[in-house]
Amino acid sequence: MLQRVVDWLDERLDLDDVRHFVGEKSVPVHVHKLWYYLGGVTLFLLGVQLATGILLLLYYRPSAEQAYESVQFIVTTVQFGWLVRNIHAWSANLLIATAFAHLFSVFLLKAYRKPRELTWVTGVVLLFLMLAFGFSGYLLPWNELSFFATKVGTSIAGALPLVGGFMLRLLRGGDDVTGATLSRFYGMHVAILPAVTTLFVGIHLLLVQRQGMSVPPSIERKLKPGDELPQMKFFPNYVLRDVVLWYVALALLAALAAFYPWELGQKADPFAPVPAGIRPEWYFLAMFQVLKLLPSHIFGIEGELVGVIGFSLAGLVLLLVPFLDRQTARGEPGRIFTVLAAIALVFMVAFTVYGYIAALQAGAAP
Amino acid sequence: MGRSDAARLGVADPGRRNFLDLVLQIGFVSTAVAIVYPVWRYLIPPKMAEPASAASVIAGNLAGLKPNSGVIFKFGSKPGLLVRTPEGDVRAFSAVCTHLSCTVQYKADTSEIWCACHNGVYDLGGNVVSGPPPRPLEEFKVNLRGEPGQEEIVVSRG
User: For chain A, which residues make up each domain, given as ranges?
Assistant: First the structure.
């Protein structure tokens, strides 16, 4: 039966190209091949987000009066609502974690070098998009923490020189964080960001398919002339290994959702002071802690402005890594960028841990 | 091919071709502007008129505010902070931290105003003591109105 359907399609569409492509596609096998799986698992988690996000849309109500109550309704009354919401929240966090791991592995294995510069650039754009998803989605339950996180986050955009005031009003839909902000974030989270992300994921995957997997320069250098790396067939050998990891991720999500439900917290109250020990999601914690430590003025410039400009520059450098790393481009071992990546990693981990400890202490103090 | 043929086919007349290209380009650009401009304006939220109540509000009554305590009140659409110093003075500030606009609170143990977001600390005059805030809190004018023992606290912009 299935064969008849395939034949029917083949007669009309000529599937030879596809068959040939799938049959020929292979993945190089070497000591660092484990890192190839991180992109796939990130894509899987994105699929989980899409599916659970669509389900949440059926009950969620994007207004300041009803958002909190509707999420409460989802997790307390709707059958398996708790599961869908918790998987959405946990998968978002795992997704950011795997995206970061994917980024650092690609960085350290220098997979961004020619000809894969554009794959890197689209990947970094996707990471920024994931952070925007995280930031906009965080507000949607309209609880106390998310309300103030949004105040701070949008104020950071407001601290930008020249365009700050405009950006602030554009993001908030007014001068303050209100129901208008919730409507905007909702629109971003469920329509604009998914559309842009689909486009970039499409380009990213197309490039990966066209160019195949990058072999790290350290492996390439060890190859004798004429030698070739052993290859693994993409289908079915590699795909089935991918699926194993996807099952692991799914099991982890189910366990986290069941045993560590995501808190809903208190409903946002614009006229309540900020609760002590407030902190953002872990992936913004390092930035948050830096902002906390910056003095009010640095060389006569407001501290937050220095911070915002610093973060923007760091983002720009990250985006342009393939064009800045001349060593790797010349085929030498790119030690400078390896060291930079290590410093960035240590800095982020250290400030994240520091942020956690500081928030715990502040929360414990009366 | 004669001159008249070329002219009829419109291939050898660069002036005419350039003109048509230009018209086409102007057409596309105008279409783009006609779409992008309204969308752009649509994205910018309309300016709300400042609510009249923000000029002055009754923030509470004196009897309800113990010395060495503070309370948030609504000042128009923004939160304000009403503080009673340990000495019994009543002061009012904007409760919006000048750093990244979190809502500040009164800390009774140190008699200071504190922002929990990034650990900014202000004294009871609204001046920055420590932490990242770049400017002092905006201070409002406080008037007491009514019979002794039942005074209302009226806060207005200074």
Answer: 29-261+274-364
